[in-house]
Amino acid sequence: MTKEKMPQPPTPNRDFTSAAREEVLKRVEKDYEEFKKTKTFKFPAWLYGPPRGKLFKVEVEDCPRFGDKAWVEFDSARTAFVSIDMQIDFCGPKGYVDVMGYDLGLTSAPIKPIHYVLHNIRNGTDIKVIHTREGHLPDLSDAPYNKVLRSKIIGDGVGIGDIPKGGLGRLLTRGEKNWDIIDDLYPMPGEYVIDKAGKGAFGQSNMPLLLKNLGITHLVITGITTDVCVHTIMREANDYGYWCLLLKDGTGATDYGNYQAAIKQIKMQGGVFGWVSDSKKFIDGVRSAFPDTS
Amino acid sequence: MTKEKMPQPPTPNRDFTSAAREEVLKRVEKDYEEFKKTKTFKFPAWLYGPPRGKLFKVEVEDCPRFGDKAWVEFDSARTAFVSIDMQIDFCGPKGYVDVMGYDLGLTSAPIKPIHYVLHNIRNGTDIKVIHTREGHLPDLSDAPYNKVLRSKIIGDGVGIGDIPKGGLGRLLTRGEKNWDIIDDLYPMPGEYVIDKAGKGAFGQSNMPLLLKNLGITHLVITGITTDVCVHTIMREANDYGYWCLLLKDGTGATDYGNYQAAIKQIKMQGGVFGWVSDSKKFIDGVRSAFPDTS
Amino acid sequence: MTKEKMPQPPTPNRDFTSAAREEVLKRVEKDYEEFKKTKTFKFPAWLYGPPRGKLFKVEVEDCPRFGDKAWVEFDSARTAFVSIDMQIDFCGPKGYVDVMGYDLGLTSAPIKPIHYVLHNIRNGTDIKVIHTREGHLPDLSDAPYNKVLRSKIIGDGVGIGDIPKGGLGRLLTRGEKNWDIIDDLYPMPGEYVIDKAGKGAFGQSNMPLLLKNLGITHLVITGITTDVCVHTIMREANDYGYWCLLLKDGTGATDYGNYQAAIKQIKMQGGVFGWVSDSKKFIDGVRSAFPDTS
Amino acid sequence: MTKEKMPQPPTPNRDFTSAAREEVLKRVEKDYEEFKKTKTFKFPAWLYGPPRGKLFKVEVEDCPRFGDKAWVEFDSARTAFVSIDMQIDFCGPKGYVDVMGYDLGLTSAPIKPIHYVLHNIRNGTDIKVIHTREGHLPDLSDAPYNKVLRSKIIGDGVGIGDIPKGGLGRLLTRGEKNWDIIDDLYPMPGEYVIDKAGKGAFGQSNMPLLLKNLGITHLVITGITTDVCVHTIMREANDYGYWCLLLKDGTGATDYGNYQAAIKQIKMQGGVFGWVSDSKKFIDGVRSAFPDTS
């Protein structure tokens, strides 16, 4: 290649950097003004395209500031309801949490609210449902060694992969009865199940691909435990730009103080990981768009 | 929780699994019929939302079968032009490929076509531009050991991180002159640069996040070398659902047979990794939508 | 914090950048000298720790240059044998490839060599076995739309998710008979199965976590098709630093020229994606360490 | 292929699944017994290979149960000290946190402890140092829209990408003075800097590859803010099997209750995300192995 023959790059007639920033900032300014008027985080059709399902609004609390309330608008067809790790091991009798001696009342509290939400969205809505399960291959090959060791020590000799006295099977082990989702919230045909070896789900499953293909933009998050798996998945999803709403009565932790703190942490700085609402407010929103739901 | 009090899950009045599949298959059937009439892979506004930029069509070759031709439709604002690894090390004098004794003519051949494309899209279009650079941190901490060792052996003692006789600096090392993009194709303000340690880019950079935020759906791919970095990135992007078009004169390999095979491999099975066109056909398409481009 | 009270950072008594690079380069120089003497890529115990299993060497071809031969040394306990996508859809009667009219002889050719390898390593060795399967959820929710559409067009109306005339079930759909691994190579208890929606596997499954936990450093790769899924997975693994060996008779493509080119592409530049050998040479190596294998 | 000619798969003389699990459980049983005697999580040389640097132990608190203490053993050469987001925007005057009106005392509290640790490990040890920076490209192309919008609303019209009154530059924007790491903790040559657009780092940077190549097994974590970026990165690292130790005086949050809760959440269930210690205990451990450190 002879450099002389090559026409030099044209002086660009655009400065994409500042032009692109100005465009974003102009857009955000507009949505900020809209928010001041409506207290609503509108579904951004300019970003995702026109709604594919029905639009509805859900009241959220302590937003933007503690004591305030606001609304987040959802497109039903772009919304996934996520039920995290509602497995016997975490909330059922003779499961892991029960065997460890934690108060089962705390982690089983969200069963009823999640059931209420599932009951409503399973009838006549186009909201997607995703369940996750934490657990390890029967040979423990996908369990980091320090995780297994810590479980052994805190369990006084009984940890992941062991069968506890009075338990249903090997702890946190795929295929065991205790590992599976409880009957009351069991996935139905057409709902998605993500198996994961970690607290989070995005880095080791097809969940990101699934969300992308389904066109999901907003996640409504429930499950257990609030400060561990629920927070980890909400953080991952938030980092990738999903609009995340936690239903606070649809989640629980092994320690009530940790539960409360986990809720508060989400609300900091105007919603650093998303928004917080509850099952009734969410279903009220859903019903406003799907009134004929039985 | 008393099981008796919990209303049992309703019989679902939907079978999402088959309903969802039928919806996809019905849609694909429709687009298949459209394709038979128009030979065009239309921009799927039903999937991504209405166009944000201008729509234009590009002729692609050997599609769906060898010998056939067809068109792919782009939304300019959702299209990114990707120029892969046009670094001195791969296509410039005294760079890595030159020092190794490969024919520089093969890897520098795409410079002119890429320049032609950049020249056109930099003036007046809203097509995004992404450049990638392969290279390692100066302490080689992000270079897998077997990669460094193999480079040392094939280079008869001169590999990644070494300064070859007559070379410009340490081979494939970030910050060195030979590592940077050649002057003729140097990124302009507002264009994106992805630095990567591997042949691919998706698993170790913010490229997936960038594409998601920019709303990109279609990638127009060029760069070097066809069978190594270009193919790897095209495979990654295709797996994530991006519509990928390779401009065959905008890419080159260190071996002409490998170049030809890499092109053919893309076209198998109706386009297993995407489509193939050339710089003229692409710019003809762009010009049809942006006629006032200088 | 009062800046005055804060002791200023010490002048570092180390320059990690160049020191670290020199350490890598010294190590690589040593292994390069060793290679010149032995023509062997020794198992780097300095990098991974002492062998956990038995060491054995496998002859590889066209390395470092075309016409040369060399050896790669493996630690059996850190080696995984990977059998990619040996599903009815790709190599069995009435599967996808058969239905599309491709020559089944090409993709079924690797069955016997893979069977031979499995037969040998299943008896008495500690080499791990990983199988992969490409396929989509029954509602096609993890299938990128352009993939489904292209399959429909090239299949003249019959693509992914459809039941072809004379076929066994829905093409590339999880749970269907045609989607599963062929009987002759079916996974045994204790072997790993990775389900994936794409050509690659690393970005959408727990395969990276599994390899890390199992302590795998070297992969022996077989399966179909050479230029599509096999190459994609080999590229991903190579980018993450795995030492990859392809067994050339243990792989096949739908086009013989693409198969040949895919093999050659690996060998470029001293092994840009790894090394190439065959099933007999690999098992000869295995047997040298496990002589009592039946 | 004629099925008759194919020898049927041998009956496997191993059951890898249960054998592998038993091996893990036996190992974990042994390390559990060792822990009961020594209260130490020994560096697992059986897993990672023999130490490359010097071994040292650090006292950790509330482990395995609240009120207990234990020790974690480190291999210095496999340890990385991580300083998260110690940027002016988060802990310096006129940075983002300051402008938002949060108490700078809380987020700047860890400066001195981190400085103390850096001072010690920079002299004569082989512990690696990694800094992270949160921030966005100047055109905001890697900032999820909801993140920008929320920052605008909570900031009463001044958010990410804006220049606040009395501020140093555009908030959280790469290249701005306020975005960079504070002078007192500025990276030295040979230390690593990871730029990230999210709260976490693993899914959008080369950090996983870097840790793998450097042979890191243990992370010592500090930085801000405890409940946001620090926790997110610790969760990601823990999911991938890294042994994570948080230095509690080396981290801070915008709210003291959230800080306290974040510390407690780590310690649940015997250390669900790792362990907690402080800068003095960590450096005491380091000094025991590197006594000549100035």
UniProtKB/TrEMBL annotation, chains A, B, C, D:
Pfam families: Isochorismatase. Residues 79-278 form the Isochorismatase-like domain. Coiled coil: none annotated. This is Nicotinamidase-like amidase. InterPro entries: Isochorismatase-like_dom, Isochorismatase-like_hydrls, Isochorismatase-like_sf. One of its GO terms (molecular function) is hydrolase activity. Residues 1-20 are annotated as: Disordered. It comes from Candidatus Nitrososphaera evergladensis SR1. Keywords: Hydrolase.
